[in-house]
Amino acid sequence: MKLNGKAFFTLAVALSGACTYADELELDGISFNHETQVAAACAEQFGVSYQAAACIVGQLSAQEVAKCFEDGFGGESCFGDNNTFVGIVSGNIEAAADENGVLNQVIRGTTGISVRDIEERGVLGGDNSEARKACNAVAGILGGRC
């Protein structure tokens, strides 16, 4: 696999942030897990674009659904305990318990961003929100920051 510039690298690293660490590939001292390898291949084929995003989502979703048919649901199979999506949703639901009021809990549980962070920092939330991390990764390609 060949890295094609800063945009490709930034996209691959940004997409790897919330992924598990199984099936790693190391290239020039940088580890790429399976999800990142898929992202890298799609970015190499389509560049940083909506087509690359559709390629990534399509391939990873198809692989996850195939695991459902092969191994069933939960545990070590599809949408299991170590699944990135399951981990994000579980984390959001756990964090929502710390919010005051039902509406604030619903917002935090569904978006992962607290109302306080939205009020202080805007719709992307705080520095550690996945939305802000993704925005910074994309903006970083152009030398900016969200």
Overall description:
Strand 1 and strand 2 form a beta hairpin. Helix 1 runs antiparallel to helix 2 (34-46). Helices cover 61% and strands 4% of the residues. The protein has a domain at 1-71. The protein is flat. The protein is mainly alpha-helical and 146 residues long. The chain has helices at 5-16, 34-46, 50-71, 84-96, 102-111, 115-121, 130-141; strands spanning 25-27, 30-32. A two-stranded antiparallel ribbon has the order 1-2. The protein is built from seven helices and two strands.
Secondary structure layout plus pairing:
Elements: H1 5-16, E1 25-27, E2 30-32, H2 34-46, H3 50-71, H4 84-96, H5 102-111, H6 115-121, H7 130-141
Major β-sheet profile: 2 strands, antiparallel
- How many DSSP H or I helices? 7
- Unreliable runs, pLDDT <50, ≥5 residues? 1-24
Shape estimate: flat
Multimeric status of the protein: single chain
Structural class of the secondary structure composition?
mainly alpha
Global Rg? 17 Å
Q: Overall pLDDT, averaged?
A: 75
Strand composition percent? under 5%
Side by side, the strands of the main sheet go 1-2
Strands, total number: 2
Roughly how many Å apart are the termini?
Answer: 30 Å
Task: Give, in order, the helices and strands.
Answer: HEEHHHHHH
Level of helix content?
Answer: 55-70%
Short description:
This protein has 146 residues and is mainly α.
Q: Which short descriptors sum up this protein?
A:
mainly alpha, 7 helices, 2 strands, two-stranded antiparallel ribbon, 146 residues, disordered N terminus, 61% helix
